[in-house]
Amino acid sequence: MYSEKYAKVIVKNNSIYTDNLFTYKIPDFLLEDIQVGHRVLVPFGRSNKPIEAYIFLIANKVEDNIEFKELFDILDEHPIFKEEDINLIHWIKNRYLCTYMDCISLLHPKGYKVESFKEISLSKEIKNLDANSLYMKIDSLSKNKQFV
């Protein structure tokens, strides 16, 4: 069993009101793979809308008696920022009084973005089918372009 770890992230949002580090609990299944500089998907706001974020720090301890949301997943196999990039982003932000996202846009490779995020789950009817029936159902759905 792993000890709890937390990620401090910058959410991909251009508002000055969200221009700070947000803390998320790292789920156990990501502990071995997650690194500073990774792009991740996190629940954000009251609606917990999935939003892209960048990991700036991984910590073992955080404030006590606060319940943190868990991040959803890692978006890239390898981190897109190195430790030096993170330090440069902090320096630019402090030197030129701009937002984290202004700094990130200077260093972030263009074309990396999450347009939308959809979650699909099987209905109860599908979960109870045997393999052959499931194959036939999927085949008919793909032909008719319908959902179950």
TrEMBL record:
Xref: InterPro entries: PriA_3primeBD (IPR041222), PriA_3primeBD_sf (IPR042115)
Sorted UniProt keywords: ATP-binding, DNA-binding, Nucleotide-binding
Location of the Primosomal protein N' 3' DNA-binding domain: 8-109
Presence of keyword Repressor: no
Molecular-function GO terms, alphabetical: 3'-5' DNA helicase activity; ATP binding; DNA binding
GO biological process, one term: DNA recombination
Name of the protein in question: Primosomal protein N
